[in-house]
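INFO  loader      accepted 1 record
INFO  loader      residues=89
INFO  predictor   begin
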Amino acid sequence: MITASASLFKKDFGNYQRMVRREPIEVVNHGEPTGYFVSPEDFAEYQRLRAAASRRHLRPVDLSDDQRKALRESRVPPEFAAPEDLMGD
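INFO  predictor   done
INFO  writer      dumping C-alpha cells
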C-alpha cells in the first residue's frame, strides 16, 4: 500500500488519482493514518463485503477467487477430523 502525507496528497492529487488505480493509498498526518484513498472498484468491493458481513453469512459468490481457492484447499486438522470420537460411548 502506498502511504502519503496529507500535505503531499493534497499537493499532488492528480498523480495519486492515477496511482490509486494500482493500489490503495494511505493518507497520514503526523505519522497517523487519517484516511484511505481507494479506486471506485475497490470501494465497490468494500461495500459488497460490508453488506455481505451484515447478513452474518457469506455466499460463495461474495468471496474473491483467492478466498474460494483457500476454502477449497483447506483441510480439517487431524484432532478435529472425527468429532464422533470425542463423544464417547
